[in-house]
Each structure stands twice: as C-alpha cells, then as structure tokens.
Amino acid sequence: MLYFYVYILKCSDGSYYIGHTDNMEQRLGQYNAGFCTGYVAKRLPVELVFVETCGSRAEAIDAERQWKKWTRKKKEALITGGWEAVKQVGKK
C-alpha cells in the first residue's frame, strides 16, 4: 500500500513549512541537498518536527491546506503535544 505524509519542517530561521509527499525520507533529503526551490530553499537546513501518515494523497493535501491556516501556536501545540494539545489550544 502506498502511504502519503503531511509534515511540518522547522526552517533555519525558526519558521515552519508544511507540505505533503509520498516519500518522506527522499523529500527531506531533497530539501537539505538544495534541490527544492521556493520557501524552504532560502531557509536551509530544515528539520522534520512532525509527520502524519495519511491513507491517500487527497487526505494529505486536505490536511496540508488546513494546517497552513493554523496559527504558529497551534502548529507548535501539534509538534510538542500532539492532537490532544491542539484541542486544548482550540478551546482557548
């Protein structure tokens, strides 16, 4: 079965980047080797700080779009405390 992943990278400037892929190890290597253009290219190196497995590309894309709308506080809650922490941030 082919899995897809939605992930959060922490960039060298402290910002976060959210994306999706079907090969997490390869994608992270591409970023840090400088093979990618765009936002991450000027913020290397990057560190993978959160990854979630999805059952389909559509599911991963939907999650990516949702997470990109989140505040920094909510992203950091997911990174440090998982989904239960995200729920708590949402209640505040």
Characterise the protein shown here.
The chain contains three helices and three strands. It has 92 residues and is an alpha+beta fold. The protein has a domain at 4-67: GIY-YIG endonuclease. The protein has a three-stranded antiparallel beta sheet with strand order 2-1-3, sandwiched between helices. The protein is globular and about 40 Å long. The mean pLDDT is 93.
Summary, kept brief:
The protein has helices at 24-32, 57-68, 72-91; strands at residues 4-10, 16-21, 47-54. The protein has 92 residues and is an alpha+beta fold.
Count of distinct strands: 3
**What structural class do the secondary elements suggest?**
alpha+beta
CATH superfamily of the domain at 4-67: GIY-YIG endonuclease
Rounded mean pLDDT is 93
In spatial order, strands of the major sheet run 2-1-3
Measured on Cα atoms, how large is the radius of gyration?
Answer: 13 Å
Q: Major sheet, described briefly?
A: 3 strands, antiparallel
Per CATH, which architecture of the domain at 4-67? Answer: 3-Layer(aba) Sandwich
Task: Kindly provide the name of the CATH class of the domain at 4-67.
Answer: Alpha Beta
What best-fitting shape do the alpha-carbon axes yield?
A: globular
Low-confidence stretches: none
SSE succession: EEHEHH
Question: What is the topology?
Answer:
Elements: E1 4-10, E2 16-21, H1 24-32, E3 47-54, H2 57-68, H3 72-91
Keywords:
GIY-YIG endonuclease; alpha+beta; 23% strand; 3 strands; 92 residues; globular; 3 helices
